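Sample log: Ribonuclease D.
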Amino acid sequence: MPRRPAKRPALPEQLVTHPAQLAACLGHLARAPLIGFDTEFVGEDAYRPELCLVQVATAEQLFVVDPFECGPLDGFWDLLLDPNRTTIVHAGREDVRMCYFQAGRPPAKVFDVQIAAGLIGMTYPIGYAGLVHDLLHQRMQKGETLTDWRKRPLTPAQVRYAYDDVRYLLPAHRKLTERLKRHKRLEWAEEEFASAVRKAVVDDATVERWRKIKGIGALDRRALAVAREVYGWRDKFAERVNRPPRFLMRDDLLIEVARRAPSKPEELHAVRGLPRGQEEAIIEAIARAQALPMDKCPEQETRDNDPPNIVLLGGLLNVVLNDFAARHRLAANLVSSGSDLKAVVRSRAYGEPLPDVPLCRGWRARAVLPELLALLSGDTAIRVADVKAADPLELVELEPEDGDEPDGAAAAPDELPPSASKPFAPAPPTGGTLE
């Protein structure tokens, strides 16, 4: 029998366009332990996005705050920094970053409904409209995605869209929290939320962003050093003038400069499209790279040349993980990437410690990794139990052969976290459908 749609949350709405209205709004929010939060911004022509609207929901009211009209929002950002208040977002990376840019810190306590959905077996990543439909059985109108939020006055359609972007956050939070508790995954969710906030505001020191530029793989080590220095100059220059880095110097031009490595400002004029007036700064960046000894220049990245056994076993673990996730109501791509699975296979094949990847940390190491390692060590085998079933595979624990000791690779105490050897407790039956 089809489910009846839940009643659309009918809450009072207020468009905040005056300092006095903002003060009253902040007084209301100060009493709320849960705040649904979203922002609208324009980031195409600035180094940092320009904040255009703030949308907020509590259990009693919806607010759309216009920062162009109501004055500074310092008091609002302070509310998000209170660890006694939970900020509810959907795919909240940019909203968290906006708070970080404005207040110097991210919200103290974040609940991301997109991540929570993946931890109870819903699609990950799932769009907001899809989550609202699948979880709350409501339909949203999404007609203002590409609107220019800087223009005033706001249209009624824009305001309606802005309210709807936070209208369902608290109901979604309530339902998702119930299911996380039922499956004993609230701690997992909190771990994921904290990790997402860290990634939103702190660049991963292990990721060299300049290496993502198209064409970088064709450069030799000296040219890579030039590309790295020019990239760093471009980023600082973009931040200073508040323009997108690629607007000031396109990636293909950066590669061309790295390839040519000119030593005089006038030589740069042969490359069309470079920012005028910055020739000396670019030449200085090139000179810094040219002065490096060769052993300090970046290494050329090797292509993925894994032998067939690594590729095959990585694919096998991916199959097992997808079956595991289906049986235990998890989004497989939230648990692990294919590259992390292959990194685990390499560590087993070459007798190395487990890699420092998400799969080998936290709840994943405790709940998922032991099953994968048991398969790699030969302690379990995989078979097709029912070709017609939604989860057709079965892992079978193998008896040690006569005279053989268990391999022990899946639970080596010097390689796994102390809790990694705990078996995964299957989620209780739920009838095969999301509630």
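Observation: The chain is about 45% helix and 10% strand.
Observation: The radius of gyration is 26 Å.
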